[in-house]
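Reopening this one. Same input as before:
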Amino acid sequence: MELAIGRAGIRLAYWWFWQRKRASPALQSIFDLYRRLRRADKWTLQVELFGAKARAIGELRSYSLSQLVVRGATPPWKGRLLYELVRSVSPKRILELGTHLGFGTMYLAAAAPQAEIHTIEASPTLATQARRHFRLLGIQPQLHVGLFDQVLPRLAGPWDIVYIDGDHRGAALYQYGTLVCGQLRSGGLLICDDIFWSADMYAGWEALRQACGARHQLVGPLGLLWK
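Same output, byte for byte:
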């Protein structure tokens, strides 16, 4: 049975967690970094674009660090939700598609500090920033720089969790989702972010859940598939 919770409901759930469950020191460190970087409007980067936002593969576009955080980094309310989902699985091996500035990766590491985490980012500039943030928080995920279809053949499952948060095109979600779904262990979880990004993304999600034939659920912007 599919459960859909709107954005307002997810924000209410986040505030419920915040009021009823004190954030761990690891989570609080991520929240603090997010707030600091949101104010970094004078730090400008030339970022290589891929996926739905790019008019050409590797197109360069100028953003302030603040803009990158606001437009693409995992916000605290979503990070808390991701953290709780990952903790419920107790994973040993995690794969993330789409590192960006590293906030999603940081929530994965906070929820499963002993897990082996692999994360893939196409933009060398974003990967450099993510590494800096990982060092600040004292985490050591294995960051792979390259396009998903270049890096994925070099990584072997099984995975306990796969988190897809990059290349916001329906065809890409279906392509990479069907590939990694077969690499999930029994009981593993595939998390697809931003499935309401566009009608095309939602169509990709619908095709993916039918192809995988797994138990599925919608929670806010996340589509969940259990193997």
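So the earlier flakiness isn't reproducible anymore. For the record, The two ends are 15 Å apart (CA to CA).
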